[in-house]
UniProtKB/TrEMBL annotation:
The gene is obg. Residues 358-436 form the OCT domain. Monomer. It is found in: Cytoplasm. Mg(2+) binds at residues 174, 194. This is GTPase Obg. It comes from Streptococcus mitis.
Length: 436
């Protein structure tokens, strides 16, 4: 089994806030001691941290659930509970994180040490010391901790490379990578020898260095899933220059120019923006018979079918076997990289809007529906947050929650929907009678 994995779906759960405490001061010589219950601690965040030593998402194949610790409960003497440590999860450079439900990009992690909070921990609930007022100097009210954020994430690894090698199987991509870098890709005289991307560093004669990725061979129909499909084309999205390798010897009976058109069509089908990247055409296997004749025919067809107002892509004849023409190719690639800017992978429509942890005034605070058993059901993000943070073991906390519901207009809305005295109302698994 290949140890390379470039996609994963995981679930993350931040820690809940600790519950606030109800306590009263009970000390000798301190008459009428007041409330003394402290707040709960904050729940731990789930944080992704970029580690340049990782090269694959294989760790996420066997561990798909990540849960941070919850905060400690509040204590007596007004002491706060301890906040939980953040759960730090290491990911490789080039990891894109999406919300699996919405498909929106949360972050693109490309720099070593870069951190991003993918799930925020809940704040601690307030203890009864926070609710003391002149009218109620000894409240028996506390809050439960806020639930931590929970979400399902889709991870995609897009390796960091400046240059991508593309072309049909067996055109010499792996051989080229092996002679211009220290990488040792598998090389064989059969199709799809390369089944995972390989990465290597190149140093040109000019002294410039850059990273090159050899991608598994494409074939016609790859965008429809033929061969290895386009499952590895995501790795070319970060590249700035494409080296289009063509077998100019036509050793497998294909026409080099038709190969060139077919591969570009697959790149365009996968992602239109890939065609924005400048291409260098690498005419490989020039040590073979008939290669020179095929190259002349290729240049002729390319010139005939190219727009007269567009610049023809540069063509570099080489031989990966004899190393002919490699120095010139690498210097030209380095020069092209110097004047080619980075390409923006995601625009604003792809990115999730910056998180807002309050409530939108235009958003409904609650929704009312009715179950088959005629029970009224209350739901809604704001209402459920108040519900989850209510301590139902304390009568005063329950009465406070009832006042909050009334202030939100729940009573009036139920009455308008036809709720009668004695009707059952359900919030989550909690049920109570409606009192008109």
């Amino acid at each position: 089994m290949s140890m390379f994995l470039d996609t994963a779906k995981i679930k993350v759960k931040a820690g809940n806030g600790g519950d606030g405490m109800v306590a009263f001061r009970r000390e000798k010589y301190v008459p009428n001691g007041g409330p003394w219950g402290g707040d709960g601690g904050r729940g731990g965040n789930v944080v992704f941290v970029v580690d340049e030593g990782l090269r694959t998402l294989m760790d996420f194949r066997y561990n798909r659930h990540f849960k941070a610790e919850s905060g400690e409960k509040g204590m007596t003497k007004g002491m706060h509970g301890r906040g939980a440590e953040d759960l730090r999860v290491r990911v490789p450079q080039g990891t894109t994180v999406r919300d699996a439900e919405t498909g929106k990009v949360l972050t693109d992690l490309i720099e070593h040490g870069q951190e991003f909070i993918v799930a925020h921990g809940g704040r601690g609930g307030r203890g009864n010391i926070r609710f003391a007022t002149p009218k109620n100097p000894a409240p028996e009210i506390s809050e439960n901790g806020e639930p931590g954020q929970e979400r399902e994430l889709q991870l995609e690894l897009k390796i960091l490379a400046d240059v991508g090698l593309v072309g049909f199987p067996s055109v010499g991509k792996s051989t080229l990578l092996s002679v211009i870098t220290s990488a040792k890709p598998k090389i064989g005289a059969y199709h799809f020898t390369t089944i995972v991307p390989n990465l290597g560093m190149v140093r040109a004669q000019s002294g410039d260095s850059f990273a090159v990725a050899d991608l598994p061979g494409l074939i016609e129909g790859a965008s429809q899933g033929v061969g290895l499909g386009t499952q590895f084309l995501r790795h070319i999205e970060r590249t700035r220059v494409i080296l289009h390798i063509i077998d100019m010897s036509a050793s497998e009976g294909r026409d080099p120019y038709e190969d060139y058109l077919a591969i570009n069509k697959e790149l365009e089908s996968y992602n239109l923006r890939l065609m924005e990247r400048p291409q260098i055409i690498v005419a490989n296997k020039m040590d073979m018979p008939e290669s020179q004749e095929n190259l002349e025919e290729f240049k002729k067809k390319l010139a005939e079918n190219y727009d007269e107002f567009e610049d023809l892509p540069a063509i570099f004849p080489i031989s990966g076997l004899t190393k002919q023409g490699l120095a010139t190719l690498l210097d030209a690639t380095a020069e092209l990289l110097d004047k080619t800017p980075e390409f923006l992978l995601y625009d604003e429509s792809d990115m999730e809007e910056e998180a807002y942890y309050g409530f939108d005034e235009e958003e409904k605070a609650f929704e009312i529906s009715r179950d088959d058993d005629a029970t009224w059901v209350l739901s809604g993000e704001k209402l459920m947050k108040l519900f989850n943070m209510t301590n139902f073991d304390r009568d005063e906390s329950v009465m406070k929650f009832a006042r909050q519901l009334r202030g939100m207009g729940v009573d009036e809305a139920l009455r308008a929907r036809g709720a009668k005295d004695g009707d059952l109302v359900r919030i989550g698994k909690f049920e109570f009678e409606f009192v008109d």
